[in-house]
Design a protein that fits this description.
about 10% strand; single chain; Pyruvate Kinase, Chain: A, domain 1; Helix Hairpins; 6 helices; elongated; 2 domains; 5-stranded mixed β-sheet; alpha/beta
């Protein structure tokens, strides 16, 4: 059984830890509110951008482009896949980073020939410790996503894709569903499908009533259009991931605070029980000594 001194030390340690987790909770909640405002402002635009670009591609049935699957997709079974993985710079965010890494490992297990483009120190350290080669580590902070950073990623990946070094490009990021749920999403950035493979997606996109007209030509505008599209989607994913990170950390710190309080309650109860036992023993000893003294005086 632990002594009262040991219990005091442990209670003090838990209290100090709780102060830290509570401070981290308050910091994350503040960052979360700002990030959520940015997400609410950016998500509708980039969702609309993604939908419209896909509508353009799907409306051009006869298009021949490196950005669109050919009619014969057998050539796309082999080749190098590019994976853009967005993680955080710090831990203590529940399963936020692990879920994103798990999505990347799923693709790697199915297709060994991959190039990793990693955002965030967690993903970088995870793969370096396991001797998995990283093609490019983007060393800017995951906490301050910007269009310039998203453009750097897009240019790097598109450059390799345009040279034929990448067959497919996947983007793995975290999506904030609600205050209690964050999911790791894996989406294929390139190439585009010529048609729908999911009826639910078809229901969300309105049909093109009139053919699109491109001036001076589709070939002239397609490259900058794709670069803008990829940049926009990556930026949206960076903002979404950062918001998800703060939400996950806030929930993790909230759970840590609750667990610390439960532990403090148990330790306090144990401390009081031991102290009460000690006091009771002292009273018994005093009573026994007094009785012995009275007996001695009677003789």
């Amino acid at each position: 059984m632990a002594s009262t001194r040991e219990l005091k030390d442990r209670i003090k340690s838990v209290q100090d830890t709780k102060k830290i987790t509570n401070a981290m909770y308050l910091i994350s909640s503040t960052k979360m509110r700002r990030a959520k405002a940015d997400l609410d402002a950016t998500r509708p635009y980039f969702e609309a951008l993604r939908t419209e670009v896909k509508r353009i591609i799907r409306s051009l049935k006869d298009i021949e482009s490196k950005y669109v699957y050919p009619p014969n997709m057998d050539d796309f079974v082999n080749g190098t896949y590019g994976i853009i993985l967005i993680t955080s710079d710090k831990g203590l965010a529940g399963a936020y980073n692990q879920n994103a890494v798990r999505e990347a490992l799923t693709i790697i297990d199915e297709h060994r020939d991959v190039k990793l483009f990693v955002v965030g120190d967690f993903g970088k350290n995870y793969f370096e410790k396991r001797s998995i080669k990283i093609e490019r580590d983007f060393d800017f902070s995951a906490e301050q996503p910007s269009l310039d950073e998203a453009r750097d990623i897009a240019v790097e990946v598109l450059d390799q894709y345009d040279r034929g070094e990448l067959k497919k490009v996947f983007l793995i990021y975290s999506n904030l569903v609600n205050s209690f749920e964050v999911t790791a999403n894996s989406m294929r950035l390139l190439p585009f499908h010529r048609d729908y493979f999911d009826d639910k997606k078809k229901e969300k996109e309105s049909e093109v009533q009139k053919p699109f007209e491109f001036y001076p030509s589709l070939e002239t505008i397609l490259d900058p259009l794709i670069e803008s599209y990829i940049t926009g989607v990556i930026y949206g994913a960076l903002v979404d991931s950062y918001t998800s990170e703060q939400n996950s950390r806030m929930n993790a710190m909230s759970s840590a605070n609750e667990n610390a309080q439960d532990l403090l309650d148990k330790l306090s109860l144990e401390f009081n029980r031991i102290r009460q036992t000690s006091i009771t023993n002292e009273i018994i000893e005093i009573s026994a000594g007094a009785k012995a003294q009275r007996d001695l005086n009677k003789r």
